[in-house]
Every structure is written in C-alpha cells, then in structure tokens.
Amino acid sequence: MKTPRSGRSVRGAPAAPREMGIYCGPMPSAPSKQLERVPNPHPGRDYEIDHVVPEFTCLCPLTGQPDFATIRIRYVPDQWLVELRSLKRYMWAYRDEGAFHEDVTNRILNDLVETLAPRRMEVVGDWNVRGGIKTVVTVRYEKPRG
What we know:
Layout (H helix, E strand, L loop, with lengths): L36 E3 L9 E11 L6 E11 L3 E3 L1 H9 L8 H16 L3 E11 L2 E10 L4
Antiparallel strand pairs: 1-4, 2-3, 3-5, 5-6
C-alpha cells in the first residue's frame, strides 16, 4: 500500500522505514584507527581549525561502563589536514575500547600529530560526570622551531 505523507500506513499503523523512503541498507562505513590526511590548500598561512566531536564514547577499563565526552581538536596545520570521514571512523573505533580519560585524550593527540605534523595542536577531552567527578583533560603539541 502506498504510504501517505504522514508516515503512517493506510491502516493507521506506523509505516516501515523503507516505505517512508529511508535508507535501510548496511552501514556505509566501519570503525577504523586509520587516520587519513589531505593536502593543506594554504600551507603558507597560519589559520586555526576546530573540530568538535560531541558524542565521543569509550569504556571504563575497570567497570566496562560507557564513558562519554566531548572531544575538541584545535590545530594550526602545516602541510596536511585531517580527512573528516577518517576522523569520524577513528573516533568511532574507541566505542568498544577500554581507556582511561587521560590516556585516550593523549592517544588522540599522538595519533593526529603523527599523521598531520601540525604547527600546533590541542586536544581537550571534556568528560561527563562519573562517580560525582567531572574531568577535563587538555593536551598540547607545538612543532619545534628551527
């Protein structure tokens, strides 16, 4: 039966996603720790890039409970920019991994610096309250001069 615009079948029951034109195929990508990079179109200029990942999730390595954070990545690129789809998949790869707040924030910085060799970078892990304690971890990198 043809689904009316209301999203309900003719009989009044909720329409199936496929009937409403919603894609129901396999996931378009999978988690991956492989960060990719693209050339910086303006390597002669200092400018700041700010990426925010508001729904970062990993697992507490002691309890197995999920930990939630907003991860903010701020950097001044040199020759390379992070490819955003690979960044999304990289962040997604932590979902089922046990990691302490301090460790995962430092690992994200290390992996990005290794891939991009930026002029400067800061990663902030703003972790949701756990056990009555709010944690914010800030790590920085600056390329040596000379």
